[in-house]
Write a structure and sequence with these properties.
With 58 residues, the protein is mainly β. The protein contains no helices and 6 strands. A hairpin with a 4-residue loop joins strand 3 and strand 4. It comes from Gaiella occulta.
Amino acid sequence: MAFGFRKSFKVAPGLRLNVSKRGPSLSAGPRGAKVSVNARGEKRASAGWLGMFWRKRF
């Protein structure tokens, strides 16, 4: 079993800075939908509601 960590900081309304073992990432969007970019420049969009979600990597 592997362990990791993640910490999230609210930078502004709708904007979060996430710090994890893999590095920092930035997320923007309302609750239930967001666009994020990680330290390697990978972009991802996601949306979810009631336990079901959709994710797309760009």
